[in-house]
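> @MW can you paste both from yesterday?
MW: sure, first one:
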Amino acid sequence: MDDAKTPSSRATDHPGSFLDAHRQRATQDVFGIADLATELGTTHRAIRFYEDKGLLSPKRVGTTRVYGRRERARLILILRGKRLGMSLDDIREYLDLYGEHGEGRVKQLARVVERSSQFIDELEERKQHLEQTLTEVRFIRDVSQKKLDQLARTKPTDRTG
């Protein structure tokens, strides 16, 4: 069910895809679940999960799910949100702000600015902690390597005491 496309060829992988999803004009108006899964690099199961959670609402033709451009754009935003670490509740709030016909677009964009700023701050803090941890681990490695080198230069009888 996963496709053979390289990650860089998927519609959700470049940074601008988050915004492109709103204005992108797909070459077709309807998509099957397999089409979306292949194009977006996800699974049928994940798409059905988002449907079960109320984030997607495909039309049904018999027992077949039929997704329109709106659902495709929503799925792109869901996948991007998950990749950025957003909870399903945050994603739902963001999608709901848009409204049925885009009437909440200003609120939606304001929310993106707010949450993006918070997320950047959180990532910067994590980055500082990671840098500190890397410095400590490198120090431990270097001290240990020096000790190992010293031990390798000593006589075997000298190593025990």
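MW: second:
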Amino acid sequence: MWSKDKRIQEELGLASSTSVFAAGLSMTGEIHSKSDIRIEGEVKGIIVTKKKLVVSPSGCIHGDVWAHEVCVMGEVKGNLNVQGLARLTATSKVRGEVISASVEIEAGSDFEGAVKRIEQNQKAEPVLKELKMIKLSNTSLSGGRTLKQVGER
């Protein structure tokens, strides 16, 4: 029988080793982690972890992923670069390339893309583009257009 203190310690250990992006959360940007990641909400951008990435049934990623291991139960629109096992469950919806040492696709998975095999010890490193900051002002442009209107068609 586990004592209350031991259960609390285990829960703290799990909490400190897994980053959870909860359902209802919508995030845009890059995520870099040395620990496990669980996506239950929506992420638009690059995800890089040296551990495991889990995309729950409610989770959605729009961007490329680099991880040691991946389990997709939700949706991914982007490439999965995985050093170990890439697992697409029956509830998954994946659009993109899966580059991995080992791939497991369950019956019922909605997968559209390509699969490429790499060696178990081969590293798949992200190629990140340098971000440039721009400053926007409230000045109007020629013809009375605003900055927002320039990008719209």
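> thanks! The chain has one domain: 11-151.
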